[in-house]
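Aim 2 progress update. The chain analyzed this quarter is reproduced below.
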Amino acid sequence: MPLLLFDLDNTLLPRDAAFRAWAEDFLAENGLPAGDLDWLVMLDGSGYVPRSTVLGAAKRRYGLDRSVESMLGHYRHGINSHISCPDSHSSALRAAREAGWTLGIVSNGGTLPQLEKIRLTGLAALVDGWVISEEARCVKPDPLIFEIAARRCGFHPVGDWTALTWMVGDYGPSDIAGAEATGLRSVWLHHGRPWAERGYRPTVSAPDLPEAVRVILGTAEHPTAEHPTAARHFAARHFATGAAGRKRPPRTRLAIPASRLAPAPSPAPDGPKAPLAQPASFTGTVPLMPLEPAAPPVRPSADQGQARPSVQGHWSDTSAAAG
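Predicted structure tokens:
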């Protein structure tokens, strides 16, 4: 039975939307300018900036007569009250389950807030196991956390278990680098962003979680779709670098192969410049790129995560606090 692992925040759960809703409440409750919402969202950095930094900056900006610790308590309660699992995500998980996949969650973050998210959103009933970095004492991209997740889902991380496993996540330096370092295939949820890392890349990219699951299930049913020659041919025909003033190809709902995420080779310093390739229209099944040797893992990031055991954790403001 194959294994499908997911990141939590901004993958299974729309964490950034929950933060934005909390920030609106925070400004309204304190009589602060509603126009400062984007300032708070910018400081938040999708949860990768420590909560003490974000809330401390807000305290100084508005001259609030409250301790950062009390503000942190308000934040922890507020953001989880705004978070929920979209119906489309729940349906995608059920579809994977019905197709015979074992499901797990792997995430960095504080134990208690992440466990609360899993339970409040109903994810606990939809997956087979989970691991949170704080209670596991290791963080993505460390391969150990993926091995722990596999064991908690009933897998023994020996033999060819990695060949049967996919990782889905939105953050390259933890989710995708971790998958590469462990030897897993991966789907990066681009959410409309360009791929920025040069040392590694996902197996395939998708705009959202339902599409990622659809691509993975389709690959399992049609393994020949990953034919290396076809993938290289696609890369040669369809990748073009971004250039100032050049229009981007229209966005589509189709998954984007990793070949389009890597930088194209630069022309020789003094040689003539080759014309840019024309963007292609996406009209059919896109072949996936074969796995390549993993690059060395990058620094651990403050992501999000989950864990099943009843571990006595604590709130960590350096985690992706509720993010």
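The longest helix spans residues 15-29. DSSP finds eleven helices and seven strands in the chain. These observations will guide the mutagenesis experiments scheduled for the next reporting period.
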